[in-house]
Amino acid sequence: MKTLTCDVCRNIIQSPVSNRNYFHLAHRDICEPCHDKLEALIKPTVRTKAPFSYDWYSKLVQESIEKAIQKGKFDASKA
User: Fold this and answer.
1) Does 37 map to a domain?
2) Each residue's pLDDT tens digit, 16-35
3) How much is the pTM?
4) What is the distance between the alpha carbons of residues 13 and 6, in angstroms, rounded to a whole number?
5) Which residues are registered as beta bridge partners of 4?
6) Which of 32, 42, 62, 74 could be joined to 37 by an S-S link, Cβ 3.0–4.6 Å?
7) C-alpha distances in angstroms, 69 versus 34, 35, 64?
């Protein structure tokens, strides 16, 4: 049995399946609940960005993940 640890919350992901119960983003492995929190955190910021730039989006995701890793969770205050 394979296991994987979420880089943000440090929970163990049993029987990991990519893009199903864990996500590999910005060179980090993130569990599904943390991925949902990340999407909820950055969605308001992404909706207000015009014109959209994938480089900007990638940087936003990476910075949000790094901040969450330092805190051990995604903080709903600001992306």
Assistant:
1) yes
2) 999 999 999 989 999 999 99
3) 0.85
4) 7
5) 13
6) 74
7) 11, 13, 9
